[in-house]
């Protein structure tokens, strides 16, 4: 049936439990999400089940132009790695890294027809994608043993170590607009957070 959505995925995982002062978790996912998106001309990652008809989708046959293909949240490759190591003097260093394919974005153009203005998607879904995510976070933690039951932790978090400025949204997807595919949202820049925690 043309009125369907499908998802297929394969995931490989590796887990090394904490021992000998270190741990490691990793996963690699390959997936495909495709079908008919009844929120046909949405520019967000939102997607609807075909049982629910998004708004007035389908009342104009132009709605079906390039409405089938990769779903808005489709990300074929996702790689995640988390690791930690405890150095002498109770100093813990850890990181979290995620790489994933950018989600698809669509482009459309507008027409004024007898039945009123309408938008038509100009390219197959999945033809173009946002830039891939490449996010690395790092933590350094020092533990002070105040007593047998009381511990004090000094925590230093560095987020977006690589200072990735990946675009996550565009101002407009209308090919005739001057701000077509101009980034309107990007990752937060590199930032440092210092925390103190008392455990008892």
UniProtKB/TrEMBL annotation:
InterPro entries: Beta-barrel_TonB_sf (IPR036942). The keyword Transport does not apply. It is found in: Cell outer membrane. Keywords: Cell outer membrane, Membrane. Its main location: membrane. GO terms for cellular component: cell outer membrane. This is TonB-dependent receptor-like beta-barrel domain-containing protein.
